[in-house]
Amino acid sequence: MSLSSKLFVILILFYMVSGHAAEDPLRPTKSSVILSADSYKTNPDQSADLEGHVRVVREAEVLTCDKARVNNATGDVMAEGHVVLISLKDYVRAEKMTYNFLTKTGVIYKGLIQTGQETIEGDEITRIGENEFVAKDASYTSCVNCPPSWKLFGSKIDATVGGYAYITSPVIRLYDIPVFWLPWIAIPIKNERQSGLLAPTFSKSGSGGLSFSESYFWAINKSKDATLYETYFDKRGLKHGLEYRFVSSAESKGNFRANFLNDRLFPSTTDYTILDKRYVPLGTDTRETKEDLSRFSLRYKQHVELPEGFSNNIDLNTIRDTRYLYDFPDDMPSAGDPALENR
After folding, report:
1. Other CB atoms within 10 Å distance of the CB of residue 65
2. Least confident span in 21-25, 70-74, 99-103, 131-135
3. Contact, 133 vs 155, CB < 8 A?
4. How far is residue 148's CA from residue 201's CA, in Å, rounded to a whole number?
5. CB–CB of 225/218 below 8 Å?
6. Is it the case that residue 43 has pLDDT exceeding 60?
7. How is 209-266 classified by DSSP, letter by letter?
C-alpha cells in the first residue's frame, strides 16, 4: 500500500474514532468527511493539519488545496494555496479561504466564485449565506466567454443568487477598458423569468461608431414577455426598440419587433445617391450631416395551430429605406436578400 493510501485510511479511521462516523460505512452521513493528503497532524480539538495534495470531501462538496486545517466537530476548514471548492451549484477558486461546511459561510481571499453564469471576483469576498455574498473592490460579470468581454467593477457588491446584485459606484469595462460610470446599479441574477433591467451591451461599427444599449425585460406572464431597449449611437443618435413574444402552445408562437430612430447620418430627402457607402442628396459631393431622417423597421411573424389540421402563418417585414438592413443588420435577419417577403 502506498504512503498516500495509508494516510487516507488512517484519516478515515481517525474521524470514525472521534465519534462522527456513519452508522453504515457505505453510506456517509451529513457530518462525515473524507480526507486525503501527503502528510497530516491531528490536534486535541478534533482538527487535523493537512499538507500536500489536500483533498476534503463532504457530501456533494469537494475542496482541494496545498495546505489546510480541518475541524470535523465544527465543520470549519482553513485552506491555503491553489484553493478550489466545487459543489453542485458553485465553483470557487482562491489563494486562501476559510469555510464552514455546515453553515456554507466563509471568506474568499484573492479569488472568485462562479454560480451559474454569474462570476464575482475580488481580493476579499465574504459568503454570508449559502446564496449571498458581499465583496469589496470587486468585479461582476455574467459573460461566460473567456476572457469576459465586459465586467462591472464596484467599490461594493452585495449579491444574492436568485435575487439581485447591488453594485456601488460601478465602472463598466469593455474588454478591460473603462467606458462608463454609474453611481449605483441593481442587476437581477435569477434563474426564473422576472421583470428587470438587463446587463448593458456595447458595440462599435464603422458607420454608427460606438454604441451603448440598455434593455428592460418585462415578464408579462408565463406565456408572454417583452423587451424594451434604448441604444445610443454616438454618430447616429438614439434608437428605440421593442420586441414582444408569445407562446400559446407547444406549436403556436409569435414575435413582433419594431425599431425607430432619427438618424443624424441619413438625409431627409428621397433624392439621394450613394457616396462613400453613405446616402447623400443628389448633386452634392459633401459628407456634411443633413437633416435627420426618421428610420424604422417592423417585423411580425407567427405560427398558430388551428382546429381540423389548419394553421395560420404570418410573416410581415417592412423598412423605411433600403439602406436600413445594411446599417442595422441585427434588427431584421434579411440582409443580402433581393427583397423583403410578406406573406
Report:
1. 25
2. 21-25
3. no
4. 13
5. yes
6. yes
7. EEEEEEEEEEEEETTEEEEEEEEEETTTEEEEEEEEEEESSSS-EEEEEEEEEEETTS
- Only one residue has cell 417577403, namely 341
Verify cis geometry, omega within 30 degrees of 0, for the bond prior to 147: yes
CA distance linking residue 117 with residue 145, whole number of Å:
10
DSSP state letter for 200: P
Strand partners, 99: 77, 106
178-219, pLDDT tens digit by residue?
877 878 887 777 666 778 787 788 787 777 788 889 999 998
For residue 9, give the C-alpha cell. 485510511
Q: Which residues pair with 212 in a beta bridge?
A: 202, 232
Please return the burial class of 283, using the count of CB atoms within 10 Å of its CB with bins 0-12, 13-18 and 19+. exposed
Q: What is the DSSP letter of 325?
A: H
**For a pLDDT cut of 70, what percent of the chain falls above it?**
79
Q: Are 113 and 161 in contact (CB under 8 A)?
A: no
- The alpha carbon of residue 195 and the mean position of all alpha carbons in its chain are separated, in whole angstroms, by 16
Q: Is 118 left (phi over 0), alpha (psi -120 to 50) or beta?
A: beta
Q: Quote the DSSP letter at residue 72.
A: T
CB neighbour burial string for 24-48, b if at least 16 within 10 angstroms, e if fewer: eeeeeeebbbebbbeebeeeeebbb
49 and 40 Cβ atoms separated by less than 8 Å: yes
* Residue 10, C-alpha cell as written in the block: 488512517
Q: Give dist(CA 224, CA 193) in Å, integer.
A: 11
Position of cell 437581477?
188
Nearest to 202 by CA among 241, 175, 168: 175
φ, ψ of residue 56 to 5 degrees: the values are -125, 125
Alpha carbons 309 and 53: distance in angstroms, whole number: 65
